[in-house]
Amino acid sequence: MSPAAAPASSAADTRHAEPTEDNVRELVYAFYDRVRADELLGPVFDEKLAGRWDDHLPKMCRFWGSLVLGTKTYRGNVQQVHQPLDGIEPRHFSRWLFLFLDTVESRFRPAAAVRFMEPALRIAQSLQLSRFGWDYPIPAEQQALLERVAPRRHPKNDVDDAHAHRPRGEPFPAKIVGRATDGDA
Ligand code: HEM
Fold first, then answer.
1. Is ligand 1 within 6 A of the CB of residue 92?
2. Count of C-beta atoms within a 10 Å radius of residue 78
3. Could you tell me the residue range of the domain that residue 87 belongs to?
4. What is the pLDDT of residue 154?
5. Keywords in UniProt for this one (predicted)?
6. CA nearest 149: which of 103, 122, 120, 117?
7. Ligand 1 pocket, residue 120 CB under 6 Å
8. Which of 66, 132, 154, 170 could be a cystine partner for 136, CB 3.0 to 4.6 Å?
9. Is residue 162 in some structural domain?
10. Amino acid 153: pLDDT
């Protein structure tokens, strides 16, 4: 998966250099416009969110604002909300990630784009592992993307090679976002 080539960074690069509340909202709405128009993802979201889009979109603005701007306005449990989704397959995740990363890269310069891409890739991986099991191999190109946007540290005297090449079955070191609340996020 490789998001569409973005314009090279130069004086002509009109993409945002910094996320703000306004451009995060524009990103969220643009992404979900694409999701809804997508023949694979559209029906999944439209079925689940019928009549609730007006709540979902501001919630997603709070989610991304919390991650990228540190607004701490999102309160929810991302894992839990995805558990009951039926019929979600690996290809749904690939499509979700492609659309999200592509939308981000078309709107933000690389240093700002990474701030969205890194949590998106990590959270997607964590959702994939809980949905498909610990033996599910994260697609190589998805892993490579994460390595590209968030290279793992390789300290000079790293003798703990076992950790660098984590065997399958160990907990995935992803930060799970949000905590369960009894109310809406
Ligand atoms: C195959 C990929 C995905 C599909 C099909 C999917 C689908 C959905 C659907 C249908 C909902 C609405 C659930 C409801 O309110 O009943 C939802 C909520 C949400 N999704 Fe996803 N999602 C996907 C991947 C992701 C990823 C990778 C992230 C994070 C980077 C994410 C973040 C969220 C958040 C924050 C919510 C709102 C949770 C809440 O209600 O507090 N989703 N997703």
1. yes
2. 15
3. 21-151
4. 72
5. Heme, Iron, Metal-binding, Transport
6. 117
7. yes
8. 132
9. no
10. 77
Domain count, the chain: 1
Average pLDDT estimate for 90-108:
97
Is 81 near ligand 1, meaning CB less than 6 Å away? yes
Q: How is residue 11 written in tokens? A: 């004086």
- For ligand 1, pick from 68, 82, 85 the residue to mutate: most ligand atoms within 8 Å of CB: 82
What CATH number should be reported for the domain holding residue 53?
Answer: 1.10.490.10
| Phi, psi dihedral angles at 133 (to 5 degrees) | 95, 160
CA of 81 from ligand 1 middle (Å) equals 7
Mutate to test the pocket of ligand 1, among 24, 32, 81 (most ligand atoms within 8 A of CB): 81
Please work out whether the CB of residue 78 comes within 6 Å of at least one atom of ligand 1: yes
Q: Decide which of 148 and 8 is more confident.
A: 148
Calculate the alpha carbon distances from 74 to 26, 55, 103 in Å. 17, 13, 22
Q: Give domain status of residue 29, yes or no.
A: yes
Distance 161 CA to ligand 1 centre (A): 35
Quickly state the pLDDT bin for 5 (edges 50, 70, 90).
low
Residue 97: count of CB within 10 angstroms of its CB: 22
Give pLDDT, residue 158.
53
